[in-house]
Amino acid sequence: xxxxxxxxxxxxxxxxxxxxxxxxxxxxxxxxxxxxxxxxxxxxxxxxxxxxxxxxxxxxxxxxxxxxxxxxxxxxxxxxxxxxxxxxxxxxxxxxxxxxxxxxxxxxxxxxxxxxxxxxxxxxxxxxxxxxxxxxxxxxxxxxxxxxxxxxxxxxxxxxxxxxxxxxxxxxxxxxxxxxxxxxxxxxxxxxxxxxxxxxxxxxxxxxxxxxxxxxxxxxxxxxxxxxxxxxxxxxxxxxxxxxxxxxxxxxxxxxxxxxxxxxxxxxxxxxxxxxxxxxxxxxxxxxxxxxxxxxxxxxxxxxxxxxxxxxxxxxxxxxxxxxxxxxxxxxxxxxxxxxxxxxxxxxxxxxxxxxxxxxxxxxxxxxxxxxxxxxxxxxxxxxxxxxxxxxxxxxxxxxxxxxxxxxxxxxxxxxxxxxxxxxxxxxxxxxxxxxxxxxxxxxxxxxxxxxxxxxxxxxxxxxxxxxxxxxxxxxxx
Length: 478
Known about the structure:
The protein is an alpha/beta fold.
């Protein structure tokens, strides 16, 4: 979709008042019909995109924020029936213009949205059934995720590179435009500019949510070079520089948080940025000792509305599984899936529960599960506890979670772990013991923890390929 189409879609969902919506949308339809009659094939395609996508929007979670919100519009909020009447008008116009296939595609997409387990997860958080919210873990596709209830997004140079590899037709022109607009920029600078461009696009999509929710939802997690994970001064300087640039791009306080690695240097960076009111998202983070260290420094220093402590589920479970396999554990593939579940239960109980419930009750940073390997990583992260638990989900994991009907248990986070499975983890995995015990590692050991080393190595290699591609090597991402 073109930028103009996206701006119009956002305007219709978030800016038009409910009592004006029918009239405003009718004016948009007349405009799109005129564009179609012009005979310009590009404009015809743009008009069809807008009418079809707006029809899906009206049947999706996007309508919940504003048009259907009785909290914001107690007397004028639109009903589902009101919006379906407008949907049918869009379909009728598309068919009049010969877009029967577009109507069929829009109906199929809307049906998928309505059947989505992720949509039920989002609405369950809204109605107080549980306290878990989710977001998109990818550089693109955010609007599709928002239709199913996504309220945040995470991105980094590696994810932008992955998106560019999977969809070169979309991203090559973006790269070439960035290079043309910045002829003196080297490949590293182009990579940073590309990442920031994605951040700004996503931040604009989420900004209406951020403005509606007291700046505590609708955030973009931004990470620059993974090669700076041990250099606190470089990370702080880079984050402050980018933050000022984002202020100009977004016309005010950015709805962003900065990804800070769960290294010893990262502790200082998290304290310094949050002290300045800039939220962080602690990444390259797998263990309870890391969670305790970062939660503590954020709680002591932060004036930011919100920060996250990401637990990279699969990036711990995978090497734990290798240890179990090497030890001859026959059901190692099943047992490893409980590693981060056990850690998350302990983390939530210790850091999020109130003192009278046996916890510390930190309020300035929140658990965030990421890098999941299957539906269990989502299902076992649902809580009805006092602190919101956030998730970011890869697109392929979103598809898997929505592939069949699933029960969403508000207390699934406390699903009992079979004693024999926990015993197996403790006895056969040194990595699990380091991650599970509150004193399993010192901050100095965060840097040498195997998952940290593996993740930063992979991210750095992928980053180098992305930088080469940004420098003009079209084959670098192959």
